[in-house]
Amino acid sequence: GPPHGDVVCHQTHRHEPPVASHPIETVFESEDILVVNKPASWPVHPSGPYNVNTVLSALEETLTEAKVLGISGRTYKRSP
To answer: 57-67, pLDDT tens digit by residue?
Structure first.
């Protein structure tokens, strides 16, 4: 460790990479479930360099009566 009781501190300031400005489209909503269509550049949950620009963060900001519990799965639509 550092000599003489010195303290070493390291701080990092990171800027998150941008995500597309396209809105998250609500496909279906009921009392128990919300299905969304997200832009491809949006990560679903915080990971790597993304902590704020995520689908879960956006939903937590807009949903007032419910708490976002997590992601239950993904469905992919086949192109014609």
So the answer is: 888 887 766 56
Interatomic CA distance for residues 78 and 50, integer angstroms: 28
Pairing of strands 34-37, 25-29: antiparallel
Whole-number Å distance between alpha carbons of 2 and 9:
11
- The mean pLDDT of 19-23, rounded to a whole number, is 83
Q: What is the mean pLDDT of the chain?
A: 78
Cβ neighbours for 24, distance < 8 A, ≥ 6 positions apart: 36, 37, 38, 39, 42, 55, 58, 59
Structure tokens at 36: 């969304």
Q: Which amino acid is at 54?
A: T
Residue that the structure tokens 């003489």 belong to: 4
CA distance 26 to 67: 17
